[in-house]
Amino acid sequence: MPSSVLSIRDLKGNENPLQATHEFSEELNGNHSLSATILPTIVNDQFIKDIDKMWTIIDENDTDYKIVYCKRQGVGSKLSVSIKAIPKFFDDFDTQRIYERYDRHMTAQEFFTIVFGGSGYNFILVDTFYAQDWEGLGDSETRLSAFKRGLERYKAEFRISGNTVYLERQVGRDTQFQYRYRLNASNIVQEIDGAAFYTYARGYGDYEDGGDEDAENNAGLIDEYTSPLADIPGIGKRDAPPVKNGNIKDPDFMREQLKILVDESLKISVSADIHDLRNQGYALAQPEKGDRVFLIDERIGLNEEVRVVDLKTIRNWKGDIIDLKLIFGSEGITKRHQSNLNAAAKQITELLEGRRKLPFSVLPSSKQNAVRNLEAAMTELIFGNGQNGVQGIIAQDKNDPNKMMWLNSAGFMISTDGGATPVVAATADGFVADVITTGTLNADQVAIYGGHEGEYAYISGSTVELRGTYERSWRGETSTHDVRTRLHNGHLRFRNDDLNRSLYLSEYGISTYLDGEGEGQGSSGTIVWWDPTYSPTGANGITINSYGGVVALESDTNRIVLNASQSVNLDSKDAPVFVHPRNNLSSYDQAFGFTTGNDNEDGYLMYGATDDYHVGFRMFYGGDRNLIAVVDGDHVRGGNTWFDVGNIATNRIDKRDGSATVYWNGSSGGTTSGTDPTITLFASGLRANIGSNDIFLATNSGGYVRVTNYAGYNDGNGITYMGIAAAEFVTVSSVYYKKNIEYYTKDAMEMINGTPVRFFHMNEDIEGIDPKRVGLIVQESPVDIVTIKGGDSINLYAMASILWKGSQELSEKINEILNFKTSIQTRVDELERELKSVKLRVEELENAA
User: Fold this and answer.
1) How confident is the model at residue 386 (pLDDT cuts 50, 70, 90)?
2) 513 and 522 in contact (C-beta within 8 Å)?
3) Residue 223: enclosing H or E segment and its boundaries?
4) What average pLDDT score do residues 250-259 get?
């Protein structure tokens, strides 16, 4: 429930309770304000010195008010602050703008969505409102200005609760509250303002924009309204300014605008001080803005229902009401006069029924003269008696005695030949229609009939009926039917009794049933006028409908065109939408079908028989993918579905969900030169995905990646291999990829020395042009370097490994030679030393000798 006291919030968002007597002022569809004088208290002292403009007051209904006026004043040795605040809604809307310009027809929902969008506030349309044409909405105007214009155009009233604005045709309640002088009301004052009082207005509508100046000549819609008050001699005709609005095209809406302009031109208001009697046990009679209540003051002859249009409430800091002043708006003088007209109509009825006498003085002068002439003409009446033999009364024209009328108990006769050939005009059974020559005939008391049972014309009351039989040709068939045409209770019916069919025409439209829907049993169809069903803006349109039949548009020798400035919609409630092109050239069942999945997330464009599709497209979204898939007749992807196209430009090709990989056919066996190019993937480049460094070429177990010429496998008729150019060739050789590892002990040099190197041409080489190649022949090579699969290739990695082994063997031989050389050198050095020693000994001996 709302708090019983106010609170105040500073600019930093700090909120404190507020103790102050305060006044709420609320105008109907107008300004709201909160005024208070804040006095120093223990509670208020926490913030009173800092109160400033733009602080926020929160009232009992949790509505924020922004302080727009602040007055500081000393009271003795203390400080008091007088403030005035307006709802934050008004302040925010007055400082926010709608920069985009809008020029279009809008419903109230569309209009207020634009006004409230991004404002921080919500709105709720409690009632429905007529759509309006807008020109120049927004264009940098404030939200508040647009909001006010919307209230005026849509005839709406508003109330605020928190951050939500409720929009209604009429706020407030219809109550039984009574406010009576000296009981719970005082100072009752009634004011009537006739400064702008009108009884007549003219309106111009339905013309091009900017044509207001010449609207009188260009308007496609001209209407006028005269108030019943104009018949009062003391008031008369008082012209209002004309309504000029080219956007108004509905005559009823124009009449409504004129009536409001005239009937509400006389302003009547009543003000009163209301006494709060809740403490005396009258808890219910508490008014709200817009309430309809009863105000009574016998002193000024006031006793009527009025509406609260201005409410001023003063509450103490606890929230108790201590004063209440209301301003009321009452029914206009037009409605009062209409009440008098109702009373006058009652008196006329009494006159007609003989319960009231019409004073002679109230007759117009011409009627008074007619009465006097009748009185003077009594000498021309011949009253029957025993002497003259006349039975009844004869009225004879004294200027033309041939014109006579007889009246007696048997009836009433007329004659234009002095009574020679009298004609009966009326008897006790009724009037004879044959003698009626002019005037108005009241068919409530008479029936007009001519013809016979099968063909006639009949008028009675509000019914006119014609019946006849005729032969007609309709769409190639000739038949004769019994048809009746009847105008009854405001609608026209055509009835074929032979076929048990009817057609009704009224302002609603044309239908084969009176209610336009088939009266619960289905119908041929209905054309509905003034139908807003399919208009998002509520604009009235035309709808062709059949409750249980087929609605078809057919042209035998020409075309059918659907042309709209906006969308052309094809909707289906529970079944696909079919398109049958060229159905004269093929089976009618072959068609395109548009439909959706049961979850309404997948869309299908299918082709085939309407009950047995062949192929189609599936469009769906989900996760991070929006996809188009080819499906079979059962709406299933994969299987026997193909996509045949000349060129594809795409960013990537992925495998579809549920599949292990993407297959580029699997039927060629590796031959790429056949007559069917669809079995070969053509490309001039293959690149790794962004974010990935490697490309993987996967073969089946034991298979090889082979590079050949254009023929590929060539159906086994000889494969031509081609080269590969690369910066390096590597062979995966990690211990993690191997098992059964052991030393290779064969004599590599023996295999190397035993394998000849040849000079040769490949079969596809051209002698004399292509140079000879150098290499080994598989049949002359050791089995250790020949590929196991196929047996026609050299394993370069094995060859390199055997060469590596041969290098090791040579290295070992070289080391042995080097070691032998070292030992020989050592022995030579020893011998040289020994020889040197011998030479020295010989020299010594020679010297001694």
Assistant:
1) low
2) no
3) strand 221-226
4) 88
